[in-house]
Design brief:
Layout lengths: L6 E11 L3 E4 H5 L6 H8 L3 E4 L6 H16 L8 E5 L10 H9 L5 E5 L5 H14 L5 E9 L17 E12 L5 E9 L7 E2 L11 H5 L6 E2 L1 H22 L9 E4 L4 H11 L10 H4 L6 H11 L8 E8 L3 E8 L1
Parallel strand pairs: 4-5, 4-6, 11-12
Antiparallel strand pairs: 1-7, 2-3, 6-7, 8-13, 9-10, 12-13
Helix pairs in contact: 3-4, 7-8
Length: 333
């Protein structure tokens, strides 16, 4: 039997799916006291995708999963575990992952959701890494899928301009190698004392759903923008440096950074603190806005398709999200 120390978690395939409907900043000008220039200069966002009425997190996630499976050359029956990172699940329960499992036909797989909001994909990838490196599972499908348009107040210009819908997926598989390849390490953290920075305060278990809470907008995203910006830059910088140091790497060794696409100013500020050149930062926020847990896997897939990631590339993922949650992953392709 091989030593678990030689087991690696390698990304075999990536995929993504974006809804067809595009809402531009100019579209938002028609209903909000805002402008294309105001949104672009503060966020970097030009447009975002919005799910159709019949598109929910499981539908988007299943479509992204199929693309990832195809790219990996794998069949659904080869998947041992399906993890869906989402903060916009289809329903309260069962888990959205169970609906994805059913839709793609991965009947041999266990399936569950992870709720870490924007950090969800990195948390899910870290979970997959542990299952694979322990020898428990051979192949894990990790999905980030969101329909944020269902939980934003389209009258609140401070939040609705930021978010979009979409899904991304990766197939992570076990290989034996003495060389450090695949997911080198993941680092995830939380700080519940900062839970009020980004929240959907409407209760389900804490309080009953009520007309009063709905009318008050408690089931829409609320965010403290300035405070979130400061802590996001600090935490992402810290965890990125920790992840690199753990693997004997420096920012100069990184071939590509795939950050959470929350805000262009946040990404630029972190890149500056890490002394990483702009041409090593992958950004697609201008096209999709903040797709929460889906943003990193969507960007990862697009980076691969664009030839930005090749065999041997060192890729750094970094994220911060509600909770507060944050994390980083280093992958050697």
């Amino acid at each position: 039997m091989s030593s678990h120390s030689n087991l690696r978690a390698v990304v075999e395939g990536t995929g993504c799916f974006l809804p067809q409907r595009v809402v531009t900043n100019f579209d938002l000008e028609k209903t909000l006291d805002t402008s294309d220039e105001w949104i672009r200069t503060r966020t970097g966002i030009q447009e975002r995708r919005i799910a159709a009425k019949d598109e929910c997190a499981s539908v988007l996630g299943a479509r992204a999963a199929r693309f990832a499976l195809e790219q990996a050359g794998r069949k659904p029956g080869e998947i041992d575990l399906v993890i869906v990172a989402t903060s916009t699940p289809d329903i309260l329960f069962p888990a959205t992952a169970c609906f994805v499992q059913r839709e793609i036909g991965a009947q041999k797989a266990a399936a569950f959701d992870i709720s870490a909001v924007c950090s969800g994909f990195v948390f899910a990838l870290s979970t997959a890494e542990q299952f694979i490196k322990s020898g428990r599972y051979q192949r894990v499908l990790v999905i980030g899928s969101e329909v944020n348009s269902r939980i934003v107040d389209w009258k609140d210009r401070s939040t609705c301009i930021l978010f979009g819908d979409g899904a991304g997926a990766v197939v992570v598989s076990r290989v034996e190698s003495r060389e450090p390849v695949g997911v080198l390490s993941s680092h995830i953290y939380s700080d519940g004392t900062l839970s009020d920075l980004i929240t959907v305060p409407g209760g389900i278990g804490r309080t009953s759903i009520s007309h009063e809470a709905i009318d008050a907008g408690n089931y829409f995203i609320k965010m403290e923008g300035n405070a979130t910006f400061k802590v996001a830059v600090k935490r992402m910088t810290e965890v990125a440096l920790q992840a690199l140091e753990t693997n004997g790497l420096t920012p100069a060794d990184v071939d590509l950074v795939v950050p959470h696409q929350a805000n262009q100013r946040i990404i630029n500020a972190v890149a500056e603190r890490l002394a990483i050149a702009p041409d090593k930062i992958f950004m697609n926020i201008h096209k999709y806005g903040n797709t929460s847990a889906a943003s990193i896997p969507i960007a990862l897939h697009e980076a691969r398709e664009a030839g930005r990631i090749r065999k041997g590339s060192v890729v750094l993922l970094m994220v911060v999200g509600a909770g507060l949650t944050w994390g980083a992953t280093v992958i050697r392709w």
